[in-house]
Write a structure and sequence with these properties.
Its main location: membrane. One of its GO terms (cellular component) is plasma membrane. InterPro entries: CPA3_Na-H_Antiporter_D, NADH_UbQ_OxRdtase, ND/Mrp_TM. It is built from 22 helices and 4 strands. It has 565 residues and is mainly α. The strands form 2 sheets. A two-stranded antiparallel sheet has the order 1-2. The chain has a two-stranded antiparallel ribbon with strand order 3-4. The radius of gyration is 23 Å and the shape is globular.
Length: 565
């Protein structure tokens, strides 16, 4: 059964290689790529079934020891409820984004490198979610980022080159810092395996581990994860990179790649470093664990991200700019309940905080992908995403308008859409922490309320400018008649095959609609999403269970006991 752990990784890797080999044939390459996306989702579903289902019961942790080398010596891959929850988001969003890519990215770009790079990016994301040691977390980060570097630069214009250069330089610096921090952790703890690190931090005297240096090194590592997630003050790369990349790449960056940084924070700081005990009294930060230190840090970053991103989104004059700054604000909403959980006075509130963060992350992954794809579609249909060039699209492209509206309402938090429950859980976690007397919980409520108001403001502005009112001259020229999915009447001024253009745009809108339906479906069937997120949160907080599964659970063909010390 443990061999199932590597199935998503192998599927993504094989698909990436096959798309490279089938480049001479456009149709064959796209077919292989799309079938690979389907196979990846099937592999993730099988892993989800083995680990999480049935919902409400005890989840399982599956471990794969590469080449039969038991932990902590070998390379370990771990699939628990937290890992497969994030993989489920990846599988769903990547498949729909891939379908959108086939319709939106030019034939030459697809044949040259797009599909191979896309699937290698999925390989890096998958490896990051499954890896059981910190060094291989670095390795998978690099696999993911090397693909994304080229995809951000995909169109090779001046703006794209500048954005890609900033993105590459910042992430290379972050990678160097990450490697130094990991080396320091290894020299301090004597191991790279996550479960083994947790075990040694829980009994530092038995392993001669000095806990205080590990706290400092983990703080350095945290800055890297904050950079990957686009948290303030490391958010400055986000707007330029998101505007420069092709729309489906931006959807993946915002919807999936950002969540790798969030996942790393949850996995390392709530599962691994939480095992350590330390008396803290530093700059007013007190506590008995690493989380006591990182809770206020998370809160400060989340609060600044929510406010700064929200204000930035309100002031932008283009749709992609609004969505990019919104993404900064929304990742703050994901980290805010983690800050509450880190300083929670009870295990129940801590579990609720992590669950709220995971639900919000899942919802954001789907809906922000929807909105970036909708923005890409209106750019393809009209030729601009500047607010001053647009207007009246609700009349000329009603299906696209409906998809965008549902995405905006989901992030605003209107019931019964899935975003309502994510935002409700964030407020509930902060409110319960406040009722229990947790320091800063009242301020967390205020920040969340301010962020919610800003979200309403910038999405209302975007809707009014783009979709409401009379059609602008540009919209009149591009869409002289009403156009919707399946319509063959609208004349697309693409200078080429109008019928082909309509088919491509219809495919793009269909993907947007599918994501909007998912937002509705996860809202109506929220109990299932909550059950999966709750199982993921319990797995994240179960340090002993994670250590036991990795160090003492069955490997591949033998018992991988916790020897080697």
């Amino acid at each position: 059964m443990s061999t199932l752990v590597i199935a998503p990784l192998l599927v993504a890797l094989v698909t990436a290689i096959l798309t490279l080999l089938t480049r001479p044939s456009d149709i064959l390459q796209r077919t292989v790529s799309l079938l690979g996306g389907v196979a990846y989702l099937v592999a993730v579903a099988a892993l989800f079934d083995a680990v999480v289902l049935p919902l409400g019961g005890e989840s399982t942790t599956l471990v794969y020891q590469v080449s039969n080398w038991g932990a902590p010596f070998g390379i370990t891959l771990v699939a628990d409820a937290l890992s497969v929850f994030m993989l489920a988001l990846t599988g769903f969003v990547s498949l729909l984004t891939l379908g959108y890519s086939i319709a939106s990215v030019g034939s030459f770009g697809q044949r040259l490198s797009y599909h191979t790079l896309f699937h290698f990016m999925v390989v890096g994301v998958t490896g990051s979610f499954l890896t059981g040691d910190v060094f291989n977390l670095f390795v998978w980060f690099e696999v993911m980022l090397m693909s994304s570097y080229i995809l951000v630069l995909f169109y090779s214009g001046r703006e794209h080159t500048r954005a890609a250069l900033n993105y590459v330089v910042l992430n290379l610096i972050g990678s160097a810092v990450m490697l130094v921090a990991i080396g320091g952790i290894y020299s301090t703890t004597g191991t790279l395996n996550m479960a083994d690190i947790a075990r040694r931090l829980a009994s530092p005297g038995a392993y001669e581990v000095s806990v205080l240096p590990v706290l400092g090194l983990s703080a350095v590592l945290f800055s890297v994860f904050a950079l990957k997630a686009g948290l303030a003050p490391f958010q400055f790369w986000v707007p330029a990179a998101y505007r420069a990349a092709p729309s489906p790449v931006t959807a993946m960056l915002a919807g999936v790649v950002k969540k790798v940084g969030v996942y790393a924070i949850v996995r390392l700081y709530f599962t691994i470093f939480a095992a350590a005990s330390i008396d803290l009294d530093f700059l007013g930060i007190t506590g008995e664990s690493f989380l006591g230190f990182f809770g206020p840090v998370m809160f400060a970053m989340a609060a600044v991200s929510i406010v700064l991103g929200g204000i930035g989104a309100v002031g932008r004059d283009d749709v992609d700019g609004i969505l990019a700054y919104s993404s900064i604000s929304q990742v703050g909403f994901i980290v805010l309940p983690l800050a509450v959980a880190a300083t929670a006075p009870s295990e129940a509130v801590r579990a609720l905080g992590v669950t709220a963060a995971l639900v919000y992350a899942f919802n954001h992954g789907i809906v922000k992908s929807l909105l970036f794809l909708a923005s890409g579609t209106l750019k393809d249909a009209v030729g601009s995403d500047r607010l001053s060039d647009l207007g009246g699209l609700a009349d000329r492209a009603p299906v696209l308008a409906a998809g965008f509206l549902l995405g905006a309402l989901t992030l605003i938090g209107v019931p019964p859409l899935s975003g309502f429950f994510g935002k409700y859980l964030v407020f509930q976690a902060a409110a319960e922490a406040f009722a229990a007397g947790a320091a800063g919980a009242g301020l967390a409520l205020a920040v969340a309320l301010a962020g919610a108001i800003l979200t309403i403001a910038y999405y209302t502005r975007a809707w009014n400018a783009v979709f409401w009112g009379r059609p602008s001259d540009l919209v009149d020229a591009a869409l002289p008649e009403r156009w919707s999915v399946g319509s063959g009447d609208a004349a697309m001024t693409d200078g080429g095959d109008g019928g082909l253009k309509r088919l491509e745009l219809t495919t793009q809108v269909t993907v947007v609609v599918a994501l909007a339906v998912a937002a509705i479906g996860f809202g109506i069937g929220f109990e299932a999403l909550f059950g999966a997120a709750d199982a993921a949160a319990r797995a994240a907080l179960d340090t002993n269970g994670y250590v036991d599964a990795v160090m003492h659970g069955p490997g591949v063909g033998f018992e991988s006991g916790g020897g080697g010390h």
